[in-house]
Amino acid sequence: MSGNSQLVEHEAPQELLTQRGLFAGPSPIVSADLYAEVSHGIADRERDRVVVHPHTTVTMNTYFGRFPATYWQRWCVSPEVELSLELTGSGQVSIVASDSDGETRMIAAESVDGAKSRVVRLSAKIDKFADGGGLWFDVVTGEERLVVERVRWTVAPPKRVRPTAVVICTFNRVEDCLNTLDGLASDAEPLSLVDTIYVVDQGSDPVESRPRFAEISDRLGAKLRYIRQPNLGGAGGFTRGLYEVTELGAAEHANVLFMDDDVLCEPEIVIRMTAFANRTAQPVIVGGQMLYLLHPNHLHVGAEYANLDTLAPGQIVRGALHDVDLTAYDEETGKKNMQERRVDAGYNGWWSCLIPSEIVKAVGYPLPMFFQWDDIEYGYRARANGFATVTLPGAGVWHADFHWKDWDDWHRYFNLRNALITSALHSRFDPRRICRAMAAQLATYLVGMQYGLAATQLKAIEDFLKGPSVLRDGGVEAASEIRKLRAEFPETIKHPASEVPGISSGDLPMIPSPGVPRKHIAVLAKRLVGQYLGKSTHDVGAIPAGDAAWWHVSTFNTAVVTDASQEGVRVRRRDRELAIRLGKQGAKLIRELYQRAPEMRHTYREAMDDLTSRDNWKRLYDL
């Protein structure tokens, strides 16, 4: 399906909607406490309104209820925000503020008595939040009830409002993609802010083949553009949206909002991220936050960065929340788990991330990395050119929990190879630190009997050393090769826990880990020597996923390890000769990496402009 979609700047409304006051989520699995908390008494929370019964207190000091004032003060040009509410009944509404320590103060309040659909407006200066803090409203009733609805936080608009395109990249997740599209189509107000929705389908099972697609397509109308293309990974799918938007002459100042196909979509994110992007002092990448789909109350991280010297992604910015229950209270302080302190991100994952077209014009398109680290590389490239990334609290979608995905998978190849490329492009690329990290990883894989994972790492290093030519096909060949390579190693295969090949369930005791060793290097050396000499503490045993660290697994001849997904087990068997062969191969490759690091740093930087050019992506898309 193709369309004649155009992205044009819109005349500014009288006021710019920054967020709505919502009182329940888009799905029954989402707790209403993420939106509105009943501190005392009884309240009926619906999506767009709340009925506050007599003698009740409702606070919007919640993840989705707060206005992130500290981020607006730091990055935007709006000096004031207005809260408007439609009230029916009797009670008091007040705006409350917090600071970076979570201490609260009341900003404004108004009481109504017997109101009938009365619109109340309260305003707050965005002027005392430099280091942290937010704004929200509380509702208190006495003898009568109060109905609160049509809640809107607004700021003064820009002269023109930037057009927005949503880009959804999908690969054989048809139902997930349709659910995300349905979520966007189901909420008229955020949908009205979107000019175009690009669905970039790279799968062999096309989304358009389902009857449900036709129904959703009718609802979206001319906004929807459905594109089929070869599988170029997440990088190729999302970049196609950037490519299409920047082709339109009138889209010089446009927002391109990436959205994963397998998220539980909160349509409100469109309002919050686009409003923020419309009011920033300079263009910034606006990142949405990730909440855990399996544990919907939990925030993944408030802001993260990558350590490019040790190739470690997902590092927690100091002061940022990580894997916390947003509806719970801190045991020490008694305060709710809220991101009070403003924290600055190094990058933002592309589960939901808005990139202004001006940044694309200035720094180019993403690298054709297939996937993994494409978002990190782009964030650091933008930063090097003066464009920051802001991870915006209160703008969130639910995505599968990362720690329920096993590290020992084919995607680890792209994680390692692309980490090396990103480090070569955007760091000192110190050979000593890089190679020390690579050697330590390899040693732990070998003693942990993860020979397929060790081979995956070595393939990543080997391909990195081939230079930028490895990216010329967008990663298609590498994706095929790594799957074939890993299939040669039995421990990469997942088995049902009840049917472990070659082992009777009666001969499989569960053996937990004794704990984390104090001296990792000494223990690692001892395990390596022990395995070389054929020594072990246990012959065979089962190990839960949480205990599957190398220092424990390495004490077995055969370890049946629960997969992180909890859907099965992997069987790791000691193979001394294979470990020696992989160790020798690894030593040779890491030595070559050490010697050629300056050369590779220069080579990748020289190729950057060509790899990220529009012409290169046009070639990859075969347009």
Automatic annotation (TrEMBL):
Keyword Glycosyltransferase in annotation: yes
PANTHER family registered for this protein in UniProt: GALACTOFURANOSYLTRANSFERASE GLFT2, RHAMNOSYLTRANSFERASE WBBL
Keywords, alphabetical: Glycosyltransferase, Transferase
EC number: 2.4.1.288
Keyword Glycosyltransferase: yes
All copies of domain Galactofuranosyltransferase-2 C-terminal, residue ranges: 437-622
InterPro entries hit by this protein: GlfT2_C, GlfT2_N, Nucleotide-diphossugar_trans
Top-rank EC class of the record's enzyme: transferase
Highest taxon of the lineage: Bacteria
Domain Galactofuranosyltransferase GlfT2 N-terminal: 44-154
Family to which this protein belongs: Belongs to the glycosyltransferase 2 family.
Name of the protein in question: Galactofuranosylgalactofuranosylrhamnosyl-N-acetylglucosaminyl-diphospho-decaprenol beta-1,5/1,6-galactofuranosyltransferase
One Gene Ontology term of the molecular function aspect: glycosyltransferase activity
Pathway where this protein functions: Cell wall biogenesis; cell wall polysaccharide biosynthesis
